[in-house]
Amino acid sequence: MRISTNTIYESGGARISDLQVSLNKTQQQIAAGRRILNPSDDPIGSARALVITQTDAVNDQYAVNRKNATNTLSIAEDTLSNVTTVLHNVKTLIVSAGNGTLTDQERGYIANELQGSLDQLLGFANATDGTDGYLFSGYSSTIAPYTKTQGGAQYNGDQGPRLLQVDTSRQIPISEVGSAVFGNIRTSNGQFNVRPNPSNVGQVVATAAINVPTTANLTGNNYEVEFDGTAANFTITNKTTGVVVVPATAYTSPQTVTVDGMDITLTNTPGAPGPNDKFSIQPGNQNVFETITDLINTLRAPAGTVPQKLELTANLSQANLNIDKSLSNVLLARTNLGTSLKELQNLNEAGESMGVIYKQELSALQDLDYAKAITELNQNQVVLQAAQQSFIKTSSLSLFNYLN
């Protein structure tokens, strides 16, 4: 068979070109340290590597989320630790205020100190996570949870915590509902806490319930029903604002008065009221700011007479009980935060282990066997050199060279 000169050059050039491509590919693999440079190098391995890479990236993002959640929850736990300290100080001041040898002025000093504690608690309740997100406002992270009011403070947040995805099937709450931490102090099993004054001598019973048609008029303030010296008339005063909401009214049993969204009912059981009998009416559920505000007002009121001292003792007892309930709420919230932090720690350990596994799998799929690659590189170089020298010899086999 006759082989033309063109055929010799074409086949020789093609062979050298293939060898050069193979050599370049091996050099690129060594430079990159990877076996798969293009999907065509290993379609199955490349697809598997893509899935693992994406999964590993998601795992890394979960790790970032867990770090953010840990930082936020740690700030919240530290804040509630400070709240616990303040509430313990308040309890100490309540005990001190019960000392029967104190004067009105000395109780006023304690009230001033309690005012400082109240301002501290309000600041802690409005604490942020360091990124201008409020810790205790639920979903409403941009709204300050509490605003100060005449009767204490009002909650402005909502009832749902913010959640952060920290694992494939786990979301962690990174905020607390302020009303659950600083509120939910049950002062009564009913809608309102109605307490007779310790100095009452009559037999009238007072009750209070929400008046449904006028629910919008509820204020959340404290009220006082007081009979006059003849026990024939009574008045109702908003103790928070000092405004008389029901002027002197003749009493008949039973008698119901609707005021500020409440139905207040007075009934002989069976006897009539006594002169100057009083009843205090408070919300059946209040927050710690209302409790401390009531306590401050109590300590600033004179307590020079026996009835006033009895009322002071009753109010201090109620305040102490309310602070205990508030402490329980705060400690429960701290327990929840601690549980979440422990879970995040466990998830971090699991996530780190999975990250190692993903990287090992990627390494097995993509990483280059350097010993094998260098051997192949040397082999390709030798073959290329041999092909080049062979081509030179073969291309010189022509009739002209033979005649020369």
UniProtKB/TrEMBL annotation:
Subcellular location(s) per record: Bacterial flagellum; Secreted
Domain of life (superkingdom): Bacteria
Listed InterPro entries: Flagell_FlgL, Flagellin, Flagellin_N, FlgK_D2-like
Gene3D superfamilies linked to this entry: f41 fragment of flagellin, N-terminal domain
GO cellular component: a single term: bacterial-type flagellum hook
GO terms of biological process kind: bacterial-type flagellum-dependent cell motility
GO molecular function term, any single one: structural molecule activity
Keyword line: Bacterial flagellum, Cell projection, Cilium, Flagellum
Location of the Flagellin N-terminal domain: 3-140
Chief location of this protein within or outside the cell: other
Domain (Flagellar hook-associated protein 1 D2-like) ranges: 206-283
A Pfam family of this chain: flgK_1st_1
Similarity remark: Belongs to the bacterial flagellin family.
UniProt xrefs under NCBIfam families: flagell_flgL
Protein name, per record: Flagellar hook-associated protein FlgL
Gene: flgL
